[in-house]
Design a protein that fits this description.
Number of helices of chain A: 14
Order of helices and strands of chain A: HHHHHEEEHEHEHEHEHEHEEHEHEEEEHE
Structural class of chain A: alpha/beta
CATH class of the largest domain in chain A: Alpha Beta
Radius of gyration of chain A: 25 Å
Shape of chain A: globular
Distance between the termini of chain A: 51 Å
Oligomer: homodimer
Strand content of chain A: 15-25%
Helix content of chain A: 40-55%
C-alpha cells in the first residue's frame, strides 16, 4: 500500500496498543480461547486456502524457483493445525506478563516508587512461508498487550488472509476489544514502510532465514529482536570424557542440522588423548569433517562440521569470542575449574558445560512460548519468552511531594525496599 | 582519526571488554579507588588544563559563538572536583551488577539452567562540554565491566585529556588491568566512525542537549540509550486539592526549569473549581502561561508553561499519549480510582500521582549512580542505573545431556525453579 495509507494503519495500531495495554488479563485470555475455538471450527476453510497456496507454489518448486524446504513449511496439515491451536491455549494458560511489580521502594514517608511491567507498544513481524506464525505471534501479542503488524511471505498469502479473517472474527464477539491490535500487510513496500516508521513501531521481529534477518538488521533503526547467524561451537577440553563428547557433539550436529543452535565448529585441545576416536565416531555418524581456516565463519546447517586443534583453553575462548555469532557454545570437560573459566569468559547468549548446544530453546528453558532467539546485547538475549515483549514503567504515589524539599534539606530519602 | 585506525581502536576496546568481563569485583573497586586517589592528587594539574580550555572559550562566549551556559558547565572548580571524586567512591561502594543469578532452574535431574547478569560489551559515549562526564562514565563502565570509547566536546579538550591521563596513570598500578577498556577520541570523524561501527560498539549513550541526542538517534543503527525531548505533563483532575496542585506544579516548573523532567504542559479538568486561583498562583511564582495548540510539542526549558482545559480524564490521557515524549507525567487528584486509571493508561517512563515530575532521577529513585534517563521502549526505560549497562547469559551445567532424549520421549523436562 502507499506510504500515507501505511502511516494511517500504523497510527491505528499505536492507538490500539494503548487500549490493549489496559485490558484485564481475563479478557485477553477469553480472546485467546475464542481464537483457538474459531480456528478449530474453521479449519477446513483454512486448509482450502492453504491448498490454493500449495497449488500456486508447486510449479515454482518444479521450476526450481522455490525450495522444497520452503514448500514443506508452507503446508498446513491436521497435525500442524492441532499444534497451532494448542499453542494458543498454552499461551492463555501462561502468567500475565503485564502489571507485575518488579520493584517496590519507599523513597520517604508516604512516597512509594513502584516499577511495573508493561507492553512495548507496536511490534512489526516479518516472516517467511510459515502460516502458523500468524496465530502464534497474534496470541503472544495479545497476551503481552502489544499491537502487531504482520507481513508474511507471498507464498502463503491465501492461508495468511484466511487465518487472520478467522482470528478477527473470533475477536468480533468480544466487546471493546481493540481489533486494530492485529493488522496484516502484504507488499514489499509495506516492509519498507514498516522498517522506516520508528515513530510508530517499537520493535521488529523477523522470523525466517539468515538473509531475511540480515536484510532487516541492515535496513532499520528500530530495535530488531532475533539472530542472523547461528555459528555455535563445542570445545573438547584435555580432560573431556570421550563418551560424553561423542554423545553431545553427535546430538548437536545431527539431531536437527538446520537448526540455528546446531554446532558448526568443533575445537579440540591438542592434548586430548582420544581425538582420533572422536573424529572417527563423528564420521561414522555421517558427519563430514572440514579443517580449513575459511570455514570458521561458516554456518553449514547440514551434517558438516569444521574442526580445529587448539593449544590451550584460552585459545579456544579467544577463537569463540572472535568467530562466534554469540548464539550458544559448550565445553566438554571433566575439569570443573576449566568449565567455570569457559562459562565466565565466553561472551554468548548460551554457554554450557557437558550439554548439547541444541538445548538453546525457549520451550526447553521452560518459558512456555518462544518469540525467537536473540543474539542482541541489549533488551533480551538468548531464547525470548513473553517477558521479551515487555518493558516497565515507574509509578510514584505521593501526597503533594516536591523535589525542592529534598534539594534544600527539609526532607531526605530513606530508600527502603518494601 | 582515519577509519582504519578507529577500527583498530574499536577492536582493542572489544578485546579489552572480554577481559574486564571476567575481573573480580575487588579488582574493579581497587581500580576505582586508585582513580579517585589519583584525581585528588592531580587536581591542580587538571585545574590548569581546565584553565586553558576556559581561556580559549572566553572569546567565543564574548563573540556569541558559545553559550554562557555551556561555558559554565565547562568550568571545573573544587566543589565539582570533590563531587566527581566522591561519585567514583560511591560507585565503588555499589553492589557488583555483574555475575548476579537472575534465575536458577532445574530442567531435569542434573541439568541446571542459570541466568547470569553480564556486561554489554563496548559503550560509545558522546558528550558535550562537561568534563566531569569522563570520570563518571569511566567509573560506571569499570564497575559494570564494560569497555568505553569517549568522545567529548572540543571546548573541554585539554581538561578531558588531562583527566583521562590521570585515570590511565591510576590504572597502570594495577597488574593485568585491560587498559584499553577506556579510550578517548576527539574528532567529528570519530563520531561518524563510532556511529557506524555496530560490529564493535554495542550501545551508544549521548550525554548532552536535545539536538545532540536527536542527531545521534537519526544516524546510527546501534541502540541509543537516552532521551531527546522531555515534554512532561501534569493533569489537574476535577477533584484535585488546590494546595497540592500549586505546590507540585510550581516545583515541577520552577525548581530547575531547564531539567528534562520539568513540566511543560498543564492539563486542567474543565470542572476543576479553582482553575483561576491555580493559574494566578502560577503567575505569581513567575510562570508565564501559554494556551496555544502549537505549543503542545514545545519543550520550553524555561519558566513557561502551556496549558489547556480538557473535558474528561480520558481526554487528558489521550492528549498525553499523543504529545508526550514518554518521559514523566503526573496526575493531581483526590480520586484514587482516577489516579489508578491514569497511571495504568499513560504510556510514559514515569507516571505519578500527586508528585512533582522532577522526581524522575536515578539518585532520587535510589539507584546510587545514573547513566541517564531513557525514553526507549526496549532494554531500559526511565532513570537508568548500573543495571542498564548489563545484559545476561544463560549457562547450563549437565553431564552429557542431549536433546534427542527429550525429542524421542526417553526423558522429559521438570522445569523446577531452585
Amino acid at each position: 500500500m502507499e506510504e500515507g495509507k501505511f502511516i494511517e494503519l500504523a497510527k491505528k495500531a499505536k492507538y490500539a496498543s494503548k487500549k490493549i495495554a489496559t485490558l484485564p488479563v481475563g479478557l485477553k485470555n477469553t480472546a485467546l480461547l475464542n481464537i483457538a475455538k474459531n480456528l478449530k471450527e474453521n479449519q477446513e476453510k483454512i486448509f482450502e486456502a492453504n491448498k490454493r497456496d500449495l497449488e500456486e507454489a508447486l510449479p515454482l518448486v518444479e521450476s526450481g524457483e522455490l525450495k522444497q524446504s520452503v514448500f514443506n513449511r508452507l503446508k498446513l496439515d491436521e497435525n500442524k493445525m492441532r499444534d497451532m491451536i494448542q499453542g494458543i491455549i498454552d499461551i492463555s494458560n501462561l502468567e500475565d506478563p503485564i502489571g507485575k511489580t518488579l520493584l517496590k521502594r519507599q523513597l520517604d514517608d508516604g512516597l512509594i516508587l513502584t516499577k511495573i511491567s508493561c507492553p512495548i507498544g507496536v511490534l512489526g513481524i516479518i516472516f517467511e512461508a510459515r502460516p502458523d506464525v500468524i496465530s502464534q505471534i497474534s496470541a503472544l501479542a495479545i497476551k503481552s498487550s502489544n499491537a502487531v503488524i504482520l507481513k508474511g511471505g507471498k507464498e502463503s498469502i491465501n492461508t495468511n488472509k484466511e487465518i487472520m479473517r478467522v482470528i478477527q472474527e473470533a475477536l468480533d464477539s468480544i466487546r471493546d476489544f481493540p481489533k486494530d491490535v492485529l493488522t496484516q500487510v502484504f507488499s514489499r513496500d509495506d516492509v519498507k514502510n514498516m522498517l522506516s516508521l520508528d515513530k510508530y513501531i517499537d520493535l521488529i521481529i523477523p522470523r525466517g532465514g539468515n538473509n531475511l534477518v540480515r536484510f532487516i538488521k541492515e535496513n532499520t533503526k528500530i530495535p530488531v529482536l532475533g539472530h542472523a547467524d547461528g555459528i555455535c561451537h563445542i570445545f573438547v577440553d584435555e580432560s573431556a570424557d570421550l563418551e560424553k563428547a561423542k554423545r553431545v557433539i553427535i546430538d548437536a550436529k545431527t539431531q536437527y542440522p538446520s537448526a540455528c543452535n546446531a554446532v558448526e565448529t568443533l575445537l579440540i585441545h591438542k592434548d586430548f588423548k582420544y581425538t582420533t576416536e572422536l573424529l572417527k565416531a563423528l564420521e561414522e555418524a555421517g558427519v563430514e569433517l572440514i579443517a580449513k581456516p575459511e570455514s570458521w565463519h561458516t554456518e553449514y546447517s547440514d551434517k558438516i562440521l569444521s574442526y580445529k586443534l587448539v593449544s590451550t583453553l584460552e585459545e579456544a575462548i579467544e577463537h569463540i569470542n572472535e568467530y562466534s555469532s554469540g548464539h550458544t557454545e559448550s565445553i566438554i570437560t571433566e575439569d570443573s575449574k576449566n568449565a567455570k573459566i569457559f562459562m565466565n569468559a565466553v561472551d554468548s547468549a548460551g554457554v554450557y558445560h557437558n550439554v548439547s548446544t541444541r538445548f538453546a530453546d525457549g520451550f526447553r528453558y521452560g518459558f512456555g512460548a518462544e518469540v525467537g532467539i536473540s543474539t542482541n546485547k541489549t533488551h533480551a538475549r538468548g531464547p525470548v519468552g513473553l517477558e521479551g515483549l515487555t518493558i516497565y514503567k515507574y509509578n510514584i504515589e505521593g501526597n503533594g511531594d516536591i523535589v525542592k524539599d529534598y534539594v534544600d534539606g527539609t526532607k531526605s530519602f530513606c530508600h527502603k525496599d518494601l
